[in-house]
Design brief:
1 helix; rod-shaped
């Protein structure tokens, strides 16, 4: 039972790390899209 709890905790940490990575990628994509839209508006 303790082993299962530890594995679940490890899995939870890995999922959180993955979610954080997706959040960062989403923020980068939004930043790039805003920059592109700004550039298009200047021309």
């Amino acid at each position: 039972m303790v082993g299962l709890a530890k594995k679940m905790g490890d899995l939870g940490e890995r999922l959180q790390d993955s979610a954080d990575g997706y959040d960062a990628a989403d923020q980068e994509a939004v930043s790039r899209l805003r920059a592109a839209m700004s550039d298009l508006g200047r021309h």
